[in-house]
Write a structure and sequence with these properties.
Two copies of one chain form a homodimer. With 366 residues, chain A is of the alpha/beta class. Chain A is 39% helix and 14% strand. Chain A has three domains: 46 residues, 434 Repressor (Amino-terminal Domain) (Orthogonal Bundle); 125 residues, 3-Layer(aba) Sandwich (Rossmann fold); 128 residues, Rossmann fold. A six-stranded parallel sheet of chain A has the order 2-1-3-4-5-11, with helices on both faces. Chain A has a four-stranded parallel sheet with strand order 7-6-8-9, sandwiched between helices. The radius of gyration of chain A is 27 Å and the shape is elongated. Chains A and B meet through helix 4, helix 5, strand 2 and helix 6 of A and helix 4, helix 5, strand 2 and helix 6 of B. The first copy, chain A, binds a DNA duplex (30 and 30 nucleotides) through helix 2 and helix 4.
Chain lengths: 366, 366
DNA sequence: GTCAATCTCGCAATCGATTGCATGAAATTT
DNA sequence: AAATTTCATGCAATCGATTGCGAGATTGAC
């Protein structure tokens, strides 16, 4: 059955003018009486009268009009690659948790990690007069956001830093995470550790790979570039493909450190398909600690990133940029701590040599 | 290390007035020359000149100012319970896929299914002058959104319908989904089927329970109210608790139809903890087909809801409400089809009912 | 009791774009 | 050629709130 909607007349909006007429004072007085700051210079009884009338008439301030005059919309733009990626919703809730109490709303846009889409969206946000932008889209090179910042738009970036630009950035301690994971694996006796790296056009992919290389050498693990394969996307399919590549390279390894959880899940799945059990045959680790990981077997050992607090931090910094009279106080760099979460996907190296200088463990595959 | 941000002067914005000065025509002419509709009544050479100047100066229209005059912000509000719930991001992308090409942006708010928060957020959206609201927050009774609709605000609801209000709603074919699942289970030989129902203050929870009761009787399965337990939240913990309740009731059953996937996942987990294997001992089914289900063992048999297209549909209807001159054409009710996805968590009914403790031997119901 | 300082509030401009109406010129008709 | 229509553009009001400035009114000081 299909019923119809009837047309409805929009109810007239109550404005300052209505309150002014009602109370007999001028609209500017009404405006001041309603403004918690300007209120100081208004007689208590006028304030009383105005508030009474406002209440009675159901006055709601028109933010659009105020925004036109003050050039502030109380709106911020939030750019992310893709909201369906589970790591972003907690970030958004974190952002919201500081913005909403302050009366700010956010406009969220998905860039899909496409360069031109991203720069078009920056313009969309600017056209809408957002007071600032939180940029969590992971594309590394990005002229449009830098230009916006140069033009005076308050901007902070999350998980990424724009080179040569003076834009505050919040990043997670990627390197620390990689190091913790490597020493965890090392403690379990692993010496030949493979890495499934993330896309290199994303900063997380790049940072984690660089950290992997650094730590492997500084920890005196066997460093073999053939144990590094790079995924083109952060997803399970790529995790599978990279495992195939690792196995067919014939290089022996006893563990795979993956650049994120989804790669790790794909890797484990494919290992299983090839008759290799995790963690008995190969240990696999992830990164991010995304939701639902506790439901997937084996439970993944990973690095937890506090997405919610990253969002909070980004929003807090942006507020300081927007409202603070001394911008000098806003730190350019903020590094958030990460945490090693040991679960079931990592275990003792199967053929680990008793001494680090021993021979490599034998390959079990093929 | 902590470097500092330097203060930056906001670059002056180019306005219609600047273009008018540059081209020597009046600002109203500039406005018309730039408006694709009004453009008809302007000389081609003036249009040329104006567009040239606009291009050269880098003019970007001020939507705030336009919005004040036209009373349209090209913004819609989207209300959801919680963005971290994986079913909502696809809905949002669906909405965005319709809205963005039309020049609309959306403000997303999370209600956390709290009544007063929800009604406060309706006000927030109205204050911001959104042109319409898509309401996907599942609280069943809700005066504030109905009031907004009465005041002339275009509103559509998703996954829920506001009683007694003339608000177009989009729902999924919950009953059809339940029926499909029940006949699937019935085909597998199950006759005693338990139901873990969702929270009854959410419409999905309520609708699915009602459908379960209807279908069970109409399909002549054994109807036993003691095989129905109600969860207080849609999560794994509640799924576990409900399984405990079912098992301790001593009622025999061979399958559990759960009101959503998370309840099902919790149920399977707890069954396993009690020594019952899914699907060998008990079949379990979910609802929603949320992401990552393919990574969790056993792969869950469920009902797929097309979240993305639900979002698209909602947005399309809202656009019709906002822009159509005859609102009569907007259907009040839209029911979207669902699809049975058979995977590994359902199998042939075992002759014996589950016996967690082995203390009783259950007869099979007919 | 006069003058200055202070306080409260109104006036009017302003933010930038839109739009009904008016005007003068060009095009068309008679 | 005069009259009328059409057309392109300018004028000015408007949306609703904010805010610098100034006018009265009130208070206080000497």
């Amino acid at each position: 059955m299909v019923r119809k909607v009837r047309a409805v007349m929009l109810k007239k909006r109550i404005t300052l003018k209505d309150i002014a007429r009602e109370t007999g004072v001028h609209v500017s007085t009404v405006s001041r009486a309603l403004d918690p700051v300007e209120r100081r210079s208004i007689t208590p009884e006028v304030i009383e009268k105005v508030h009474g009338a406002a209440e009675r008439l159901g006055y709601r301030p028109n933010r659009i009009a105020a925004g036109l005059r003050t050039n502030r919309t109380m709106t911020v733009g939030v750019m992310i690659p893709d909201i369906t990626n589970v790591i972003f919703p907690p970030i958004l809730r974190g952002i919201e948790s500081v913005l909403e109490p302050l009366g700010y709303a956010s406009i969220i846009v998905n860039t899909d990690s496409e360069k031109e889409r991203e720069s078009r969206l920056v313009d969309v946000l600017r056209d809408r007069g957002v007071d600032g932008i939180i940029h969590a889209a992971a594309l590394r090179s990005d002229p449009s956001i830098a230009r916006a910042a140069e033009d005076g738009m308050p901007v902070v970036t999350l998980n990424r830093r724009v080179e040569r630009a003076c834009i505050p950035y919040i990043i997670n301690d990627e390197e620390g995470g990689i190091r913790q994971m490597l020493s965890h694996l090392s403690d379990l006796g692993h010496r030949s550790i493979a890495h499934i790296a993330g896309p290199q056009n994303l900063s997380t992919g790049q940072l984690r790979l660089a950290a992997f290389r650094d730590c492997v050498t500084s920890m005196k693990l066997s460093h073999n570039e053939r144990l590094v394969v790079t995924a083109t996307r952060f997803d399970e399919d790529e995790g599978m493909r990279c495992v195939d590549a690792l196995l067919s390279s014939q290089e022996p390894f006893t563990a795979i450190l993956c650049a994120n959880d989804r790669l790790a899940l794909g890797a484990i799945e494919r290992l299983r398909g090839r008759g290799l059990h995790c963690p008995t045959d190969v240990s696999v680790s992830g990164f991010n600690d995304m939701p639902f990981l506790n439901l997937i077997r084996p439970k993944l050992t990973t690095i937890r990133i506090e997405q919610h607090s990253a969002g909070r931090t980004a929003a807090t910094l942006l507020m300081r940029l927007i409202n603070s009279n001394d911008l000098e106080s806003v730190p350019i760099e903020t590094i958030l701590p990460v945490e090693l979460i040991v679960r079931d996907s990592t275990g003792p190296a199967k053929d680990a040599a008793p001494r680090p200088t021993g021979r490599y463990s034998a390959a079990r595959h093929t």
